[in-house]
Amino acid sequence: MTAGVSYCPDPNRAFLFKYNMKHFYKILTLSLSLLMAVQSTAQIQIRGSVYDKSGEWPIADVHIQIDGSRTGTITDAKGHFELKDAPETGTILISHSEYKSIQIPYHHKGTDFLAVTPLYLDRKSIALQTVDILAFSGRDRQTPVTISSIGKQSIQTQTADHAYPELMRYVPGVYASRTGGGVGDAAINIRGFKQENLALTLNGIPIGSVENGLVYWSNWDGLGDATENIQVQKGIGVSDLVNNSLGGTINIITNATAGSEGGSLTWSTTDYGLQRTSFKYATIPGKDGLSVRFMGSRTTGQGYADGTQVAGWSYFLNITKQFNARHKLVFSAIGSPERHGQRNSKLSYEEIEKKGIRFNKDWGTYEGIPRNLAENFYHKPLISLNHYWNPDDRTQVATLAYFSYGSGGGKWAENFSGPYIFNYRTPSGQIDWDGAAWENVNHQDYYLTNQGDTLRNFSKNAQTLFLASHYWAGLISAMSRDLGSKINLTAGIHARHFKSKLWQEVYDLMGGDFFIDNYAWAAEGTAGREIRKLRGDKVRIDNGAIVGLVSGFTKITYNHKGIHSFVSAGGNHNSYRREDRYNYPSSPQSQMVSRWGGEIKAGVNARINRNNDFYANMGYFSRAPYYKFVFPNFNNNPAYDARNEKITNLEAGIQHTTERTFLRLNAYYIYWKDKSLLSNEYKLIDNAVSTRAMVNGLDALHIGVELEARQKIPGVSLELGGFVSMGNWKWRNNVTALLFNNENQLVDTVRVYADGLYVGDAPQFQAGILLDAWPEGPFRLHTSYTWNDRFYADFDPARRTNNSQVQPYRIPAYGIAMAQAGFSFHIMDIRAYASVACNNIFDTVYVVRGEDGSDHDRASFLGYWGMGRTFRVSLRLDF
Predict the structure, then answer these.
(1) Which of 698, 801, 794, 795 is nearest to 748 (CA)?
(2) Do 866 and 843 meet the contact criterion of CB atoms below 8 Å apart?
């Protein structure tokens, strides 16, 4: 199961570091020599911005083309564009499906740079929003929701050495970080809400887990190379087909039409040995209306933490067929098959001080070969087919069918009698696999079966594979109808079927003859099943979920004289069924459980004058519980007292926008009632004393203020930006919890005291400054500094059983600086771009996430530490 992945033992860490640094310096020297040796050929770069003529807001996805050539591009979320290698004389063609096309002739000599004055487009008489209906994208100065857009240019210049969610780290109220240190292992919070309380959509398709709402970012590791735009829609969001948008919606768009025909080849490496190579190619629509976009990448090498090697691929394919003015078909497929080592165990300050921030105690060596306790391997392709139809000039119907099949799992361990695998440790702190195997071979214990047989030579500890597969299929359809010059009606439906399978099987007996699974906690006992388990046999877990969803919505928008408003209402029916072949071999299916949910949202954006807007919105959500809360006790008995979570969301803001200045100030109020929580959900409980808690009925209040500003400096190609986010997030009541032990057996009912405690897992104060420079030449520079404070450890109800009212451990505040410099040049007739990035310039030691301990202090705290100073070199060739 470890093909394609190699591990380096801890004693060789110093050698590996020296090798990686030597390798990195060779690459850096080669890159700099190449830059010095290559002469830049003369080129004309044309830069400009495109705005709506009536409202003067920027227009994204405008086609910018040089007449008679294939040189072209599209505008980003801010309306900006840049044409490279343009001829000295020509005509710029500007077009957009919702605006009247214009042509701008030009003639330029003397310098390599031409800045055109801002361009303004007139709307067509009927403006159908083709992409917005299914992708649910918001529009600046129109949609009354706090929206931050991250365009393709920003993604390329701000990537450095970050996981995908960290692309959103400059949005106020957003906290994104890596977690354990494995490649793709990351998490994101918005306004204090975790990932399961955010909506993530990919081209309009909800892709969060159906069972628990989580997003496993390693499944989408190649998404950054395929992304055209990210919209972070805070609060109620824009989509009417997702109902878990408490903190906000992350709307990812990959299928924007290519601005020009051509491709690119990109290679990058870090100083610690992680390498990525990607290839892209796109065609523009031909006479047959057909265009194709493709991306593929390969990632190999070492993750930042010890024992976190990776071997992965990613791919993206988009085929668009424009049949005529009325019909368009779009096919997309995306996926990232990968395998990577993980660091799941949180660490203490003492361990970090002794072992360093790259220390990982979830691996060791077995018979001289490195072996991970925690390793993830998975492939989750997503395939979709979109059909856009304009039956008349006032109506559009858009339909999307999608399918996904996921397969893979991870390595873990199981125990029968004696110490758990966690208790076998080498002097360096790694898992002592050889010690555990010696115990498997040499122990004299025996087990007496119910039939009177005596079993010997069994494995006390065995490595297992925790495997999971699922499929889901769905259909989304929406219709938009202009009822007049001021009113638009949109209605849509979403139907989805999901089925999963989860099981564990023996991977390595580690010297023993077999592993014993005596079905001690199975509802039907052994039921005639063999208790001696060999490699490949299932042990202790064999269940799955069947979850159905049908939802619908209706929305009315009103646009007139600077007033943009909407009211929408939606409802959803959720069905849940559990299959458990381990506990109930004779009758594995549970009864069907149904829950209704619904929402109502409204908002208005009012134009105060040419440059200023006021907006406000509200939403009330009744969210049906996730599957994990309907069947929380790891059996087929549903929790009949599981309640819908109720969320009241209010927000208001003001915005100032000119060609050079952007300023936005907003405030929010979110009251969250009847929250459910399951502690230690994804942690292997390693002794009979540890417990996990199921909590119902928690309430929380999230209030805050956010400020965001950008300013272009006149006369120079320089933009300064900054943001501040101040929140106050607290739990509001005390509740009762059910405690389960390591065998998932109910052992107690306790009172959980949470009233007045701060919500943890994200900083409640954030600030940052950014600088982007693109002088009239080949250089680009991006640098930033971000600060995080009022950061509390995550709340664990299993440790809040007395009324002490002591706040969770406060994680020390920290600031991180990063910089990225790039240089464009030519190699023969091939356009090239090289960049060097440094993350955590000052090598700050800091905690990114953590779990509050029993004493709520530094000594009992366990957490994940952030990466130290790292470097990344990349080279892109455009053709």
Answers:
(1) 801
(2) no
Residue 135 per-residue DSSP state: H
Q: Percentage of the chain with pLDDT > 90? A: 55
Q: What is the DSSP string of 186-217?
A: EEEEETTB-GGGSEEEETTEE-S-TTT----G
Q: Which amino acid is at 616?
A: A
Q: Which long-range contacts (CB under 8 A, 24 or more apart) does 175-178 make?
A: 175/762, 175/763, 175/766, 175/788, 177/848, 177/849, 177/866, 178/304, 178/848, 178/864, 178/866, 178/867
For the chain, state the CA radius of gyration. Answer: 28
- Give the C-alpha separation, 283 to 291, whole Å: 5
**How many CA atoms lie within 13 Å of 229's alpha carbon, on the beta-carbon side?**
26
* Chain centroid to CA 106: 43
pTM value? Answer: 0.87
Cβ-contact 701, 672 below 8 angstroms = yes
Spatial CA neighbour of 742 closest among 634, 878, 846: 634
Where residue 216 falls among pLDDT bands split at 50, 70, 90? confident
Contact, 315 vs 222, CB < 8 A?
A: yes
User: 275, 226 in Cβ contact below 8 A?
Assistant: no
- C-alpha 503/C-alpha 684 separation (Å) is 15
Q: Are 431 and 419 in contact (CB under 8 A)?
A: no
d(CA 236, CA 620): 9
CA 788 to chain centre: 20
Closest to 809 (Cα-Cα) out of 774, 745, 856, 740: 856
Max intra-chain CA distance, the chain: 96
Taking the C-alpha atoms of residue 200 and residue 168, their distance in angstroms, rounded to an integer, is 13
Q: For residue 236, which of 128, 138, 133 has the smallest C-alpha distance?
A: 138
Cα separation, 327 vs 332, in Å, equals: 17
Mean pLDDT confidence for 681-689: 51
Contact 648, 662 (CB under 8 A): no
User: Of 210, 189, 789, 129, which is closest to residue 478 (Cα–Cα)?
Assistant: 129
Run of H or E residues at 153: helix 152-157
Any residues with CB less than 8 A from the CB of 640 and at least 6 apart, and which?
none
DSSP-assigned beta bridge partners for residue 398: 388, 478
- Per residue in 178-209, is it b (16+ CB within 10 Å) or e — as a string? bbbbbbbbbbbbbbbbbbebbbbbbbbbbbbb
Q: How far apart are CA 136 and CA 253, in angstroms?
A: 10
Look at residue 364 and tell me whether its pLDDT is greater than 80: yes
